[in-house]
Write a structure and sequence with these properties.
The protein is an alpha/beta fold. The protein has a domain at 27-205 and 242-267 and 300-318: 3-Layer(aba) Sandwich (Rossmann fold), CATH 3.40.50.720. It is 34% helix and 16% strand. The protein has 9 helices and 12 strands. It has helices at residues 36-47, 64-70, 119-140, 174-191, 214-222, 243-253, 273-284, 308-314, 322-341; strands at residues 27-31, 51-56, 80-84, 101-104, 145-150, 196-201, 204-205, 228-231, 237-242, 262-265, 269-272, 290-293. It has a 7-stranded parallel sheet, with helices on both faces. The protein has a 3-stranded mixed sheet with strand order 7-9-11. The protein is globular, with a radius of gyration of 19 Å. The protein starts with 26 loop residues before the first strand and ends with a helix.
Length: 343
Amino acid sequence: MNHHSSLSPRPFPFLSPDLTHQERTMHAVITGAAGFIGSHLAERLIADGWTVTGIDAFTDYYAREDKEANLAGLLQEERFTLVEGDIAHIDLAPLFADRPVVFHLAAQAGVRGSFGESFDGYVHDNLIGTQRILEHALAAGCPRVAMASSSSVYGDAEAYPCLEGVTPTRPRSPYGATKRMCEDLADIYRGLGLSVTSLRYFTVYGPRQRPDMAMRRLCEAANGGARFTLNGDGLQSRDFTYVLDAVDATVRAGTVANVPPILNVGGGEEATMLEVIATIGELAGAPLDIDSAADGKGDVRRTAADTGLARAALGWQPTMGLREGLSRQLEWVRARQLVLAVR
């Protein structure tokens, strides 16, 4: 495990343009740092000159080996430190003592898995974990918490695209309900003086995506893996967001001077599952064989984000088109499977 560098973080300047690069070097804490988005975020912050403390519980939702692979490059970095532990239990005070910017991404994900007795885990990881992060960030005087929410809070909207503060939030899954409640917790701590913003991510995809996600499984199927089972008629659509675009929005949400309480983060390129399947088949050079199944419990028919607020407040815009993003994910899956084949 690496140790903290000797750089001393300064009071948060919100990236004032008159500061030198060294003066702008900051400390961030990332929860869920070994995960899909968290590992990309850590790499981005390290590249930007930050020191980063990553926290991860390495839960068994998917293989530990995948998460360790996500961290392979980071563990060689002097300015990255990994803390393994459950945010619902570990002592957070020492990790927040120097008032880091907090990027809170740790959560139990998965819409379908949140039904039934497994909901206990969602309450523990999402609600209790988030409350502790907010409580300790407030106590430490952390300048900003940027935390992951989800488009799942909207459920099946009456109109699209979904707009923060206008579109009602009506989750269709226990998972979505926990993310909505995390936003409510953020609002409570915002009222106590903590600067916190919730990022409603819309279907983030790309290299390192979780193995249960559809686009990862489709790319694996296109490369000789298990056949893909399509739930529903394939006409359900999503607003797909490439992971590095989501990361860029997240970094900006942690560093702009005035940040709205809730922001949609969507890639702006909506597609049906049938269109995604066809595109991956074209990229792979052969159509995919698909099995059919009933609609998944808790799945929504459509997601689409109005990202005007994020664009205006953060100076952000997505840059990766869906076809190119899928090509990059397919290349990552191929490279990963080649590594696994020689083990």
